[in-house]
Amino acid sequence: MKPAALTEELEESLFGGKAAQLAAATRAGLPVPAGVALPYGFVDALAADERDARQRLAAVFCTLGAPLAARSSAVGEDSEQASFAGQHLTQLNLRSESELVDAVSAIWRSARSPSAFAYRERLRLPREPRMAVVVQELVDADSAGVLFSRNPVNGSDEIVIEAAWGLGESVVAGLVIPDRFRLRRDGAVAERIAGLKDVAIRTDPEGGTSSTHVCEGLTHVLCLDDAQLAALHALALRCDEVFGGSHDIEWAFAGSRLYLLQRRALTAILSPAAGDHTDEHVRCAAK
């Protein structure tokens, strides 16, 4: 098995759900950063330090250039049955071939952590993971976050957006209280709530990322304007056309340009009477 561009039709059984959905989005014309998917057999070979795999990955680096992002795409990840949210690594701002090799190997190892094995056991999935990886051009975001095409708490038919300054990891990891927006199905803004965005995850010139303080004048300022909300609304509607169902989307703005970083199905939507058994990704991405 060898790497394949995200412009190709990718088999989920080889490249994982994240890669397959990003490839479908790319072919549909959605704003996905250029990238390459590494099938799980290739990632296994790289983790075993096989020379041919290292050479092929070096070619991927030369094709895409730096900086890069590497994200897990395990077979079964981002499915309707299991999101694996918070279980597998994402490595950002990779600036050399050696950093990319180390990042892919670290992602492979993350699928074999005690918590990842426990997660698989809880969902009665096969114990041995098949870890594929997506490598993409890095979006150095001015603002980023998550979008749910249905309210993940009460299931209402509205779009919920959470956003913060910088890279979206500050939202996904719960490092800030993000801005929160609710949009009606026609795009009208039903609610805007400014969060407390006192830190931002930014790219480091030397590689990787770091947490930086947000100046006091911006901590309570909404990080999305009406034009950006309209672009996110349009993206959600396009995902309806391409995928159907309900979506959990990670997105980023670099300047005025919107990028789709990943799309997964919402794995659980609660009614108000459903209790507190919230899906693990909703806990991670919407807290």
UniProtKB/TrEMBL annotation:
<feature type="domain" description="Pyruvate phosphate dikinase AMP/ATP-binding">
    <location>
        <begin position="64"/>
        <end position="269"/>
    </location>
</feature>
<dbReference type="InterPro" id="IPR013815">
    <property type="entry name" value="ATP_grasp_subdomain_1"/>
</dbReference>
<dbReference type="GO" id="GO:0008986">
    <property type="term" value="F:pyruvate, water dikinase activity"/>
</dbReference>
<dbReference type="InterPro" id="IPR002192">
    <property type="entry name" value="PPDK_AMP/ATP-bd"/>
</dbReference>
<keyword id="KW-0670">Pyruvate</keyword>
<keyword id="KW-0808">Transferase</keyword>
<protein>
    <submittedName>
        <fullName>Pyruvate,water dikinase</fullName>
        <ecNumber>2.7.9.2</ecNumber>
    </submittedName>
</protein>
<dbReference type="Pfam" id="PF01326">
    <property type="entry name" value="PPDK_N"/>
</dbReference>
<dbReference type="InterPro" id="IPR051549">
    <property type="entry name" value="PEP_Utilizing_Enz"/>
</dbReference>
